[in-house]
Design a protein that fits this description.
Elements: H1 6-13, H2 17-30, H3 37-45, E1 51-55, H4 61-68, E2 72-77, H5 80-89, E3 94-97, E4 114-119, H6 123-126, H7 132-141, E5 143-154, H8 161-170, E6 173-179, E7 193-200
Parallel strand pairs: 1-2, 1-4, 2-3, 4-5
Antiparallel strand pairs: 5-7, 6-7
The chain binds S-adenosylmethionine.
């Protein structure tokens, strides 16, 4: 067993938290808001029919878009209510409940590595801090040697970017491109958001 994620601690403290989050995104979708910006960047980075892991997929807005675009998508999230919503709202990907710290997709019948892994929406800041390096290590283990991981989260959420870079290095990743937005603005020392495109250190 690993330490419980901060997200599931929130759910334990407020059982309505998951439903609130699901409804928030459903109402934005009904209002016609653009919920696919991150997914469009991922789509642009891979060939058609790529293998994509949506790590901490929540109710599935990225994975759903990417499956519609013709990719083979697996989404993993620790919150069963969010996975149920993803299955309902975005049929197509394989949606799985699981803690990223214990990610072992070959044991669940998915042996092939991924071309790209995306983790959007501040997932990193909802991990139990004691599991961060382990989670990044599990992502590395599921990535093809020529693949990339794209991880986005904001500052002011108790995970310093400098610590994240150290953790990513410890997990076997090297920064490829650092951005401050999903529409490709560069990362600087003053950025309050990070989109890190990482490659395996050996590659
Ligand atoms: C703010 S939501 C973002 C959801 C989705 N990525 C998006 O952008 O719409 C953060 C997500 O991280 C997931 N999460 C947090 N810790 C996790 C863990 N250890 N393993 C798997 N998922 C986790 C939560 O369950 C939640 O769905």
């Amino acid at each position: 067993m690993v330490e419980q994620s901060i997200w599931m601690q929130k759910v334990a403290a407020d059982p309505g938290h998951s439903q609130w989050y699901i409804e928030r995104f459903r109402s934005m979708a009904r209002a016609g808001q653009d919920l696919a910006g991150e997914a469009r960047l991922i789509d642009a980075m891979v060939p058609r029919g790529a293998r994509i892991l949506d790590a901490g997929c929540g109710p599935g807005r990225l994975g759903g878009y990417l499956a519609e675009a013709g990719h083979t998508v697996v989404g993993v999230d620790v919150d069963p209510a969010l996975i149920a919503a993803a299955e309902q709202d975005h049929p197509g990907p394989r949606w799985l409940v699981g803690d990223l710290a214990e990610l072992d997709l070959p044991s669940r019948g998915i042996p092939e590595p991924f071309d790209i892994i995306v983790s959007a929406g501040n997932v990193m800041t909802f991990l139990a801090p004691s599991t961060r390096v382990q989670v990044l290590g599990r992502l590395r283990a599921h990535l093809d040697d020529s693949g990339r991981a794209v991880i986005g989260f904001g500052s002011g959420r108790d995970y310093e970017f400098s610590q994240f870079f150290d953790d990513a290095a410890a997990a076997g990743f090297t920064p490829d491109v650092l951005l401050s937005t999903w529409d490709l603005r560069p990362f600087t020392e003053n950025s309050d958001f990070l989109v890190a495109i990482l490659r395996p250190s050996s590659a």
